[in-house]
UniProtKB/TrEMBL annotation:
It comes from Nothobranchius kadleci (African annual killifish). This is Pleckstrin homology domain containing, family G (With RhoGef domain) member 4B. The gene is PLEKHG4B. The lineage of its organism: Eukaryota, Metazoa, Chordata, Craniata, Vertebrata. PANTHER family: PLECKSTRIN HOMOLOGY AND RHOGEF DOMAIN CONTAINING G4B, RHO GUANINE NUCLEOTIDE EXCHANGE FACTOR-RELATED. InterPro entries: Rho_GEF_signaling-related (IPR052231).
Amino acid sequence: WISDINQELLTSGAVILPGNKDRGGRSVLQVCTRVQVWASEACSANTLTCLLRYYHSTLRKEMRDQGMAVVIDSREQQPVPALFSSLFEFQTLEPNALYSVLFVVDKDGSAKLDRDLNVQNETFSSLKALLKHIDQTQLTRDLGGTFYYNHEHWISFRQKIEPFASSCCAAIRFLQESR
């Protein structure tokens, strides 16, 4: 449930699942390393893994089965080690949950996974190069695209829909048991 996730991390927008897709039709998980929350205790490997598992659980089964494309926007700020640890832990707990990890870095920057996740990973020094994997209409504005996403609205929607869905499931169980 969304209420089980570290709220500081969730509301920071450091890690989002906007609903956009890569060129293969896989869900795109976006990570922005410039957000202040990375310096706080909210960004432990454990809290990040919980957030990744939560996002993954919100996907339809067909989308989960394809794995996610992770875009790490590390322009101006290198990723913290906890991010890599959480990606590794997430992939261990949810095999094949990750399809690829795509790094966006500054022109003279570099980034790479500190452990082998057995997933495709590439580094791009320009947003234009990222278009090889994700169409511009599927990139959010932060990544130079036109895909609209409002994280606050998404959180608000999830906070409303989850209790409703839970009530529906309880009603279905009640009806099935009363036969």
